[in-house]
Amino acid sequence: MEGSGREEKGRRRRGGEEEKRKREEAPSDLERSTMALQGVRVLELAGLAPGPHCGMILADFGAQVIRLDRLGHQGKTWMARGKRSLALDLKRPEGVSVMRRLCKRMDVVMEPFRPGVMEKFGLGPEILLKDNPRLIYARLSGFGQLGRLSKVAGHDINFLALSGVLSKLGRSNETPYAPLNLLADFGGGSLTCALGIVLALYERTQSDKGQVIDANMVEGTAYLSSFLWHSKNLVFWNQPRGKNILDSGAPFYETYRTSDGKFMAVGAIEPQFYALLIKGLGLNCDELPNQLSISDWEETKKKFADAFAKKTQAEWCNIFDGTDACVTPILSLEEAALNEHNQERGTFFTDEHHNVSPRPAPLLSRTPAIPSTKRDPMEGEHTKEILQEFGFSEDEINQLDSDKIIETSTPKANL
Ligand SMILES: C[C@H](CCC[C@@H](C)[C@H]1CC[C@H]2[C@@H]3[C@H](O)C[C@@H]4C[C@H](O)CC[C@]4(C)[C@H]3C[C@H](O)[C@]12C)C(=O)SCCNC(=O)CCNC(=O)[C@H](O)C(C)(C)COP(=O)(O)OP(=O)(O)OC[C@H]1O[C@@H](n2cnc3c(N)ncnc32)[C@H](O)[C@@H]1OP(=O)(O)O
């Protein structure tokens, strides 16, 4: 949280020194070679959002990730940090042969398509695992590999809906809303898939065998919501949507507008923290209903909202700074990157093109992720280099190129 005055400046300076020290202690090449997933080869078939995110996580933690792009520059190249790109036409038998050859030396292949697409190519798990029994074949789909809906198109909001979780999200008297595409695409999808891959890699150290991973966003999201299932009969969930403790029903777990049109987040659940909130707001506990008196929550919310509307966000930050009242400013992405606490920890980093991104999490003490700071690859930028590495001869590569089975692109000099 931001403070003010001399103390604030002192903290900023210390934060800057800390940053400088961190830069000087930047990991050496030797340390880079000890990232957690160093040496793991991953072939990621290019997809929309969860697949690229899963591949980025693996690359951040040291895996060599190759993104397999289609020909013809689709322009969908986000979250490609630290990856290389190979453009290959899988609709041609020669393209399929190239992929089978690559997969013989891969640790992981990850595909984001509708179930059946890989089989249609002749690149289903039976075939690739026969070629390479140590291969981990990760399938990241929406509804799962089998089942009535498995082949139907869908996006985050649909998977969230089917998992049951969407029914719980939203304010009272409003229709349910999806919090961006964070929960199913990334929480239930890419993170769960990355976990599956790491688990399978770990298991392979014992069995020396690969396996197939059915990571899907409906089940991943349902699993992510285990807390809901395990607590749904408790008192704090038995009201309708938007009327419970954690879903915007309670005044002490809410967001409030400040006098300058910004917002504060309040999460003062425990009585001792709630008491600090009331004190900070300048209200009197004795004049308020009991914290857990649900029938009074609407009224209490109004009182809190009136109080918050009297001061600016910075003023509230000063009041609550360093207290246990569980009150924080709601920061924009840009403000979050500049926030003193986040700066002190290095929560965000800037790449060579001045783009700011969140640092990979979690932070491992000995072998932390070291995200690439270089620009994302262009589609097909590394096609030739990758094929050479995998033992393709110059003649073979030229033939594939002239037959338009592969595509290469060369970055233009920025003169
Ligand atoms: C909410 C998120 C989605 C966010 C997406 C946004 C990021 C994008 C949405 C709109 C985009 C913009 C728009 O397109 C306009 C611009 C276009 C420009 O090019 C770029 C800028 C744009 C502004 C663009 C920017 C962004 O892209 C957008 C804003 C999600 O929920 S993501 C999760 C989605 N669901 C899943 O992943 C579940 C599993 N997957 C599926 O169910 C399906 O894949 C899916 C997603 C329903 C798509 O179905 P589709 O029929 O298209 O594909 P599949 O059935 O899976 O089959 C794949 C086909 O691709 C062929 N193929 C693949 N690789 C190759 C290859 N190397 N060679 C040859 N062919 C290949 C494969 O053969 C299949 O083709 P066929 O059907 O012909 O066999």
TrEMBL record:
<dbReference type="GO" id="GO:0005777">
    <property type="term" value="C:peroxisome"/>
</dbReference>
<comment type="pathway">
    <text>Lipid metabolism; bile acid biosynthesis.</text>
</comment>
<dbReference type="InterPro" id="IPR050509">
    <property type="entry name" value="CoA-transferase_III"/>
</dbReference>
<dbReference type="InterPro" id="IPR003673">
    <property type="entry name" value="CoA-Trfase_fam_III"/>
</dbReference>
<dbReference type="Pfam" id="PF02515">
    <property type="entry name" value="CoA_transf_3"/>
</dbReference>
<dbReference type="GO" id="GO:0005739">
    <property type="term" value="C:mitochondrion"/>
</dbReference>
<protein>
    <recommendedName>
        <fullName>Alpha-methylacyl-CoA racemase</fullName>
        <ecNumber>5.1.99.4</ecNumber>
    </recommendedName>
</protein>
<comment type="similarity">
    <text>Belongs to the CoA-transferase III family.</text>
</comment>
<comment type="function">
    <text>Catalyzes the interconversion of (R)- and (S)-stereoisomers of alpha-methyl-branched-chain fatty acyl-CoA esters. Acts only on coenzyme A thioesters, not on free fatty acids, and accepts as substrates a wide range of alpha-methylacyl-CoAs, including pristanoyl-CoA, trihydroxycoprostanoyl-CoA (an intermediate in bile acid synthesis), and arylpropionic acids like the anti-inflammatory drug ibuprofen (2-(4-isobutylphenyl)propionic acid) but neither 3-methyl-branched nor linear-chain acyl-CoAs.</text>
</comment>
<dbReference type="GO" id="GO:0008206">
    <property type="term" value="P:bile acid metabolic process"/>
</dbReference>
<dbReference type="InterPro" id="IPR044855">
    <property type="entry name" value="CoA-Trfase_III_dom3_sf"/>
</dbReference>
<feature type="region of interest" description="Disordered">
    <location>
        <begin position="1"/>
        <end position="30"/>
    </location>
</feature>
<dbReference type="GO" id="GO:0008111">
    <property type="term" value="F:alpha-methylacyl-CoA racemase activity"/>
</dbReference>
<keyword id="KW-0413">Isomerase</keyword>
<feature type="region of interest" description="Disordered">
    <location>
        <begin position="351"/>
        <end position="380"/>
    </location>
</feature>
<dbReference type="InterPro" id="IPR023606">
    <property type="entry name" value="CoA-Trfase_III_dom_1_sf"/>
</dbReference>
<dbReference type="GO" id="GO:0005886">
    <property type="term" value="C:plasma membrane"/>
</dbReference>
